[in-house]
Write a structure and sequence with these properties.
- With 305 residues, this protein is an alpha/beta fold.
- Helices cover 37% and strands 13% of the residues.
- The chain starts with a helix and ends with a helix.
């Protein structure tokens, strides 16, 4: 039914959640969707998923695998970088600049580019914002903003007078933005495994459930279980495994196949979820010791960054 839904839809949105290196899973999903004739009309990206959203929007999805391979070939760490513009030993910002220039460059402003929306967190008030790549002077800065996560990035980009950071903090699954852009169906490719519970949407909603009114129009592609791959994995042989896993899961969900390779799983609960839940407990305990009318104002001030 899900494949028929997509094939009969007039306007499909591809939504790419964040997940750092594990977003290589999305590469396999995009390649399989393309092979099945499922094309995006709008893309929405968050954090590392924004690079996949951008290359699809630039109509260069046939090069998405090479985009990732090129990025991983560059050295990520250089102590000398502490004394350069980024003031960090991590070279991710410079690596992304080079890769973006090679594979995307000005294509997001071309007439035939797809709308590319990016989820970011406004640092001033920790509020989520959805910005369009076509509406900013330099789309690269917008993509760097949604990836801004210290210590890997040290200077938050300023866009239209505001500084923004990682969109995964406030909305890591912005499928609503695709519907708002006129889509009648959405493919959400996210990294949290099915056996882990609901979708990770934000630090305040780690077990999100898509509401009934939209559920029939959202095709969720995600791993069966928590992925046994590092947040910062860079070995191409491991990322190739992730790409294959994304392909196989897409085939399972859209074609009804079954592949035992998709049963791969990490042991235990995600460290990110553990941290978020621990912070939530601390926040609740703190709030119980404060006046009730102060809760709303102080809750945002205590949001971890």
């Amino acid at each position: 039914m899900t494949l028929e839904l997509l094939r009969s839809s007039r306007r499909i949105g591809f939504v790419f959640s964040g997940g750092s290196s594990r977003c290589a899973f999305q590469v396999g999903a995009v390649e399989r969707l393309s092979a099945l004739g499922i094309r995006a009309a709008v893309t929405v990206g968050v954090s590392a998923g924004s690079w996949n959203a951008a290359i699809v929007a630039a109509r260069s999805e046939d090069r998405i695998r090479y985009f990732w391979k090129s990025f991983m070939r560059m050295p990520a760490f250089d102590v000398r970088n502490l004394f350069r513009a980024h003031h960090s030993p991590w070279r991710y910002a410079e690596m992304h600049r080079r890769n973006f220039g090679r594979f995307i460059d000005k294509r997001l402003h071309d007439r035939d580019a797809l709308p590319c929306l990016v989820s970011v967190t406004r640092l001033r008030d920790k509020a989520n914002a959805i910005l369009a790549a076509a509406d900013v002077d330099d789309p690269l800065e917008l993509l760097l903003a949604t990836n801004y996560l210290p210590p890997f990035y040290t200077h938050a980009p300023r866009i239209q007078g505001e500084r923004y950071g990682d969109g995964g903090v406030t909305d890591n699954a912005p499928y609503e933005a695709a519907f708002a852009a006129g889509c009648d169906a959405v493919v959400l490719i996210t990294m949290k495994g099915e056996s882990e519970g609901g979708i990770y949407k934000s630090t305040r909603d780690v077990d999100h459930v898509i509401p009934p009114a939209l559920r029939e129009r959202v095709v969720v592609i995600r791993p069966r279980h928590r992925l046994p791959f590092s947040f910062t994995e860079r070995r191409w042989e491991k990322l190739s495994e992730l790409i294959t896993l994304g392909d196989l899961r897409t085939r399972e969900l859209l074609l009804g196949e079954r592949h035992p390779e998709t049963d791969v799983r990490a042991t235990g609960e995600s460290p990110t979820v553990k941290v978020v839940r621990a912070l939530r407990k601390l926040r609740v305990g703190d709030d119980r010791r404060r006046p009730a009318d102060a809760f709303a104002d102080q809750r945002e001030e205590r949001e971890p960054w």
